[in-house]
Amino acid sequence: MNQDKLSAAFLNASNEYSELVAQGLGEPPAAARAFARMMENAPQSFMDVAHDVAMEMGLMPEKPDGYTANGEPVYRLESIAKRLGISKEEAEKSLHEFEDATGKQFFDVDDVYLVQ
User: If you average pLDDT over residues 65-74, what whole number do you get?
Assistant: First the structure.
């Protein structure tokens, strides 16, 4: 990641999120918005490391359910819920809360090519 140029938007969002977490405010909508901005502006190398860490922590299914047209791995919500040991309904609720807090919507499934 040290070869990537970090944008001001990424650094600002990262600093804002870190400050909120340090204050014990990692759950409110403001933190979710800062986190979403950070990920949205992250260099690819950061995203690769984040994905690898999530895999090492056992937070993601071992294999993606599909890929975007750009080759990015994607996972069904059901697969993630199963991996985390929560119900599909709990995962949907969490996803909707994140989308509501951040104003972000996840990509259209028309852009996903499922693994057969």
Answer: 87
